[in-house]
Amino acid sequence: MAIALITGKKLLVMFILLMIGIAVSKVGIVKGEGKTQLSNILLMLVSPMVIISSYQTKYDPHLAANLLDSFLLATIGFAIVIISSSLFIRKNNSEYTIERINVIYSNGGFIGIPLVGAVLGKEGVFYLTAYLTMFNILLWTHGVILMTGKASIKTTIKNICTPSIFATIFGIGAFLVGFTLPELIAEPVQMISDLNTPLAMIVAGATLAETNVMECLKNIRIYYLTILKLIVMPLIVCAAFSKIPIDGMVKMVILIATACPAGASGTMFALRYKKNSRYASQLFAFTTILSVTTLPVMVLLMMKILHI
């Protein structure tokens, strides 16, 4: 119950930051190009610094073993969601690709990192990096194939060479050999990492400000997909995890990331591959708003299922 209450409190704080993001967009402080630039700063600088910072801890065999388990559970979790989503969302739907990419790929970075950090601490973020690594690899392989209907090995390799992947490789290597950054470097890395929550929520709010929420409310299909994303998929994954003998904290980290709302990646991919970006942004907006209420409930429910 305590974790669920902490989750609810932190989500309310994040919701306030979201409202600030909407406000600064409405008054013109952050416009279209500015939002894109802030998003790039998050993706290319802040998120990698968060990952590096989370690995700056003394090597511990217990942490190393749990990190491997995190990679295993993240892989299983994504496999379950990818397969299950194909059963709930049929190909005869004209928006099949947009709906699936939004249901499969959560906002585990912008919302997951600050939420897991608040609820489970730095150790939780440490395990979350496994989920984010799998997210980036699958998004730029499976996600691209889903959106384009074709695959290119050369393009795939180029796409997955992101700052977050490099930060993960560096971070894991540093953790395994016991290397810590000198204080002169570690301090600015941590300061940049601390920007993640407020900046991410402001960018998300600025994105929501451009979405017609009333139009979302009139679309029954969006309700179906929101329930699928925020409730059905996490519960299916949770049921599978309940049969796997792995540390409860590791399970909760992956499950919280799975239960997060649709990621902005769905909208970015829709723009990139000339799909229905308006529909993608509506799914992003609606799931983000409703996650403020669903996430605390889901955390409590999943803890009961896992007997934590």
Describe the protein in words.
The chain has 308 residues and is mainly α. It has a single domain (2-306), classed as Na+/H+ antiporter like fold, CATH 1.20.1530.20. It is built from 14 helices and no strands. It has helices spanning 2-26, 32-54, 61-88, 96-104, 112-148, 153-160, 163-177, 183-193, 196-208, 213-218, 220-241, 248-259, 265-272, 277-306. Helix 2 packs parallel to helix 7 (163-177), helix 11 runs parallel beside helix 14 (277-306) and helix 13 (265-272) runs antiparallel to helix 14. The protein is globular.
Map the helices and strands.
Elements: H1 2-26, H2 32-54, H3 61-88, H4 96-104, H5 112-148, H6 153-160, H7 163-177, H8 183-193, H9 196-208, H10 213-218, H11 220-241, H12 248-259, H13 265-272, H14 277-306
Helix pairs in contact: 1-5, 1-9, 1-14, 2-7, 2-8, 2-9, 3-5, 3-11, 3-12, 4-11, 5-12, 11-12, 11-14, 12-14, 13-14
Q: Point out poorly predicted stretches.
A: none
Roughly how many Å is the radius of gyration? Answer: 18 Å
* CATH fold description: Na+/H+ antiporter like fold
Which outline best applies? Answer: globular
N to C succession of SSEs: HHHHHHHHHHHHHH
| Domain module tally | 1
State the helical fraction: over 70%
Largest sheet: none
Report the average pLDDT across residues: 86
Structural class determined from secondary elements: mainly alpha
Strand tally is 0
Give the DSSP E fraction (strand runs of 2 or more residues): under 5%
CATH architecture assignment name: Up-down Bundle
| Cα distance spanning the termini | 10 Å
CATH class: Mainly Alpha
Tally of individual helices = 14
